[in-house]
Amino acid sequence: MAQEFRLPELGENIESGTVARLLVTPGDTIAVHQPVIEIETGKAVAEIPCPYGGTISELRVKEGQTVKPGDVILVLDAGVSASAAPAPEKAAPEILPEAAIAAAQAQAPKIVAPPAPAVARATEFPAVSGSPSARRKARESGVSAQPATAENVSAPQLGIATREPMSAIRKMVAQQMAHSWQTIPHVTHFEKADITELEALRAQYAKQAQQAGVKITAIAFVIKALTEALKRFPKFNASIDMESQQIVLKPFYHIGVAVDTPYGLLVPVLRDADRKSVLEIARELPALAEKARARKLVAEEMQGGTFTVTNLGGLGGTGFTPIINAPEAAILGMSRSSIEPVWRDGQFVPRTLLPLSLSYDHRMIDGAEAARFARWLCEAIEQPWTMFLGL
User: Fold this and answer.
1) Is the pTM of this model over 0.90?
2) Which residues are catalytic?
């Protein structure tokens, strides 16, 4: 009897995936729960087990194909269901685990690298038009000076370009960033926090923290101060509902932290950050970042953020304009700190300054309020002990 295996649901808000690799071929005999394909979605690549056993008579998908829940993956002869066969000694996941799928009851999926990008045919560049000098340079380069129109876009060739498909993560990032930029009127406010005392405090307790297996970083202090700032300026920990014309204020503080990975930008969430000490934050952040880079994050670690921090300090820069992660109301960017001369008590003294970039939703937050928020945050960072006093 022929038995079709259809792709199960991929999880909340996951409508499709890409076939990263086929693990079986027609004629293969498979056991119940044996993985048959690898699916790449927005956050991870996961092996998908088949709940039936039997001989594969037909494969209905191919590598690189986009599939949706309900699509037929393969057809089995003399298929045996999981309920009719003894369970294997070590059951495989029954649900499609990936970084954006609610899979608390399933074991972590095997994470694999995405398929190598395909190279498309060479793209020819259009002909050059413009001023006499531009046309002369074009002639010297052997390029025709005719106008570039739809009819001649593949005329002279200036070089060979290649194309590669966007990964599922890159597609997701592109869609989310485009949505955020198009729907939220962004304004970015820039500040510099004097972290001279904070760095001294960090150095003072670095050895004790290291003995506890923790490396205290500046971002841990910033996140701790940030949660206190959000309590005093609740609109920054909110979202806007334009349909009902309401601002949704959130009494919890889940801080998303952007992580650069080989697969694209991921934002794991540090939950209830206001209830954690600086040491606890410093311990959890590297663990979340490592899971993001290994594509082992589960749904709960990627959802429910109320405010995001993105830190480029390790790479450089003096400021940037981070894009808000909708539906959040704001995002804080950190750049590289540097020692600069600051006028204090009638003389210039060397101080360590941390550039901060605060992008906010101008529909619900005005410039003056953003300036007050950023200044309060800076003062809390500049006097790190005050954040523990509750003042």
Assistant:
1) no
2) 362
